[in-house]
From TrEMBL:
It comes from Microcystis aeruginosa NIES-44. Transmembrane segments: none annotated. Coiled coil: none annotated. Keywords: Heme, Iron, Metal-binding, Monooxygenase, Oxidoreductase. InterPro entries: Cyt_P450, Cyt_P450_B, Cyt_P450_sf. It comes from the Bacteria. PANTHER family: CYTOCHROME P450 YJIB-RELATED, P450, PUTATIVE (EUROFUNG)-RELATED. This is Putative cytochrome P450 hydroxylase. Belongs to the cytochrome P450 family. The keyword Metal-binding applies. GO terms for molecular function: heme binding; iron ion binding; monooxygenase activity; oxidoreductase activity, acting on paired donors, with incorporation or reduction of molecular oxygen.
């Protein structure tokens, strides 16, 4: 077979994110699509699926593609005859999630919120994050078996965001539970029953933050919640519902990216003993290693856009109003962009991955997620020099947008 020939005819390429084989390892499917059908019309919901780096980067920067409106998806679910209510709590909770907004709303809200995630502000957290990681590791360092997700990766980002907002440590467990559950709303193929459950979760989270914001208004401090309450941009400020939604968004987005970065990164290391040894000998590679983990097994596999007009791409016409899934995970394994893309290379120098997307929707919390990942992974590698994967099968979470393990069991000696 010639190199220029597709691996198999386009009609035989199956994109089914519900298959167990896909959840375990989606990358062979991505490569087949890149080779033979890079602008793929899915049979699941009629959406387009893009898998090539160049196409995805182009769409992320093209204003003719707007963000998918999560509010529209929620509204559509509420119109189902057997739906319980209008999903108002869920609509409020997700109303200002930046990845589902376009200018001018996106520009305004990002300006009001973004100051908390600048390089300078995040750098001030370095010492506190290191203390949190050490605290979590102190609780498990003498064990022979542990779960890197449940014992470290999952608690850490909730601790960090709670500290930023000045929330009580006693609330960490319920905040983590709420954030973990509500992250499922980004999955476009959830059932009506899922939406009804998530609406209840959203209501609980709204009640919590409404009470907390009311109390904080009476006693403002140096925390980021106080800063959000008083945030202004040219006489503009956050409304009450916007403030509630932003607080919820910080937990959901902050948790998912960091948990999956640490979990997927450590899994890749544990499956690559040579790379693990290299990192243990050269801890100065931690920053480039984290970039490689983000590329190699991206925490967010997809983001979505909607075409505002008929647009030609890859020899096909994406019609106005049609939904497009941009497969960030595939873009980051594209051999046209990355040399030997399926090889984990902790010293990879040219690593302009799209794990945090690109353009105006580039991840607001990317600096914080990187810092958390760097500190946590370095601490794990230092603390457990003989870390090994446990033999039990790994389970991936039920989410086609986000890629992360339910648990990562390991042995320490």
């Amino acid at each position: 077979m010639k190199v220029s020939e597709p691996l198999e005819p386009a009609r035989k390429v199956i994109f089914n994110p519900f298959l167990a084989s896909f959840k375990s390892d989606p990358y062979p499917t991505y490569h087949r699509l890149q080779e033979s059908d890079p602008v793929h019309k899915s049979s699941l919901n009629g959406a387009w699926v893009l898998t090539r780096y160049a196409d995805i980067k182009k769409v992320l920067r093209d204003p003719r593609f707007r963000a998918e409106q999560l509010s529209g998806r929620i509204a559509a679910k509420s119109l189902v005859p057997r739906a319980a209510g209008d999903f108002a709590p869920l609509a409020i909770a997700t109303g200002t999630w930046l990845l589902f907004l376009d200018p001018p709303d996106h520009t305004r809200l990002r300006s009001l919120v973004g100051k908390a995630f600048s390089s300078a502000e995040v750098e001030r957290l370095r010492g506190q994050i290191r203390e949190m990681v050490n605290q979590l590791l102190d609780q498990v360092k003498d064990r022979e078996r542990l779960d890197l997700i449940g014992d470290l990766a999952a608690p850490l980002p909730v601790m960090v965001i709670a500290k930023m907002l000045g929330l009580p440590a006693a609330d960490l467990d319920k905040l983590r539970h709420w954030a973990d559950e509500l992250s499922r709303v980004v999955d476009p193929l959830r059932s009506l029953g899922d939406y009804e459950y998530l609406n209840e979760v959203a209501g609980e989270m709204i009640d919590y933050f409404r009470r907390l914001i009311g109390e904080r208004r009476l006693a403002l401090g140096e925390d980021r919640l106080s800063a959000l309450i008083t945030a202004r941009e040219q006489e503009d400020k956050l409304s009450e519902n916007e403030l509630l939604s932003i607080c919820i968004f910080l937990f959901v987005a902050g948790e998912e990216t960091t948990v999956n970065l640490i979990g997927n990164g450590m899994l890749a290391l544990l499956r690559s003993p040579e790379q693990m040894g290299q990192l243990q000998r050269h801890l100065e590679l931690i920053p480039t290693a984290v970039e490689e983990f983000l590329r190699y097994d991206s925490p967010a596999q997809f983001t979505s856009r909607v075409a505002t007009e008929d647009i030609e791409l890859g020899g096909k016409t994406i019609g106005a109003g049609e939904l497009v899934y941009l497969c960030l995970g595939a873009a980051n394994r594209d051999p046209a962009q990355f040399a030997d893309p399926d090889h984990l290379d902790l010293a990879r120098s040219d690593n302009r991955h799209l794990a945090f997307a690109d353009g105006i929707h580039y991840c607001l919390g990317s600096i914080l997620a990187r810092l958390e990942g760097q500190i946590a992974i370095e601490a794990i590698v230092r603390t457990f020099p003989d870390l090994k994967l446990s033999p039990e099968p790994l389970e991936w979470r039920e989410n086609i947008i986000l890629r992360g393990l339910k648990s990562l069991p390991v042995t320490t000696g």
